[in-house]
Amino acid sequence: MRFGPLLEGRLLRRYKRFLADVELPGGEVLTAHCPNTGAMTGCVEEGAPVWLSRADDPKRKYPHTWELVATSRGMACIHSALANRVVGEAFEAGRIPGFSACPDIRREVKYGSNSRADLLLSGPAGRVFVEVKSVTLCREDGQGLFPDAVSERGRKHLQELQGVLEAGTRSVLFFCVLHAGIKRVSAAGDIDPAYREALAAAQAAGVEVLAWGSSVSPQGLALEQALPFSLDPL
């Protein structure tokens, strides 16, 4: 996934969840859209270098979107919706082993109880429902955690993934790591114990869990390699 030209600045503050004030090199301050509903722990350090894209849409109140931040532990992409695009491109390119018998890919497919699967893979081997989660919470020694805030929606997705399991159908929870400092992934049981328990139940029921790291730069994003996953930090 390639970015177009990005505007570099310095983060002043993030507020009202969806807004961020950024100072440009010449001193101008602009307000950008923040496309992330989480706590963004470690990604909102005052004065951190950030990169913004611009949309040429006259209907937008804030034409700039915050895309990247250079944290003390590595570059991160805070635009969580881009994880779906990065993972979808990797499946299309056949870069993720174990899914070659399901080459047909659809996005945003309705399933379960009023939910949408980020990806639905299908083919001679059956179907695979894929739910993608962006991971940017990085703690010491490269430990990545999800979620970074209590997530009722995340628990609902786990239940939906369990609900579609049957003969010829697989379910995959895919942790797309968009933080260069993260080397392994676990559930954030100290932040959302209920999510940790729901994930344990989903795994026991047969939901597969994958975690992959990505390259993150102002040029673009791409999945690079599988990362270790454990339910709890080791």
Protein described:
The chain is α+β, with helices and mostly antiparallel strands and 234 residues long. Helix content is 15%, strand content 44%. The protein has 3 helices and 16 strands. The strands form 3 sheets. It has a 6-stranded antiparallel β-sheet, with no helix packed on it. The chain has a 6-stranded mixed β-sheet with strand order 7-8-9-12-14-15. A hairpin with a 3-residue loop joins strand 1 and strand 2. Helix 2 runs parallel beside helix 3. The protein is globular and about 60 Å long. It starts with 6 loop residues before the first strand and ends with a strand. The relative contact order is 0.15. The mean pLDDT is 96.
Topology (elements, then pairings):
Blueprint: E1 7-15, E2 19-23, E3 29-33, E4 49-54, E5 64-71, E6 74-77, H1 82-92, E7 104-111, E8 115-123, E9 126-135, E10 137-138, E11 143-146, H2 152-163, E12 169-177, E13 184-187, H3 193-205, E14 208-217, E15 220-226, E16 229-230
Parallel strand pairs: 9-12, 11-13, 12-14, 13-16
Antiparallel strand pairs: 1-2, 1-4, 2-3, 4-5, 5-6, 7-8, 8-9, 10-11, 14-15
Helix pairs in contact: 2-3
What are the key terms here?
234 residues, alpha+beta, 6-stranded antiparallel sheet, 6-stranded mixed sheet, 44% strand
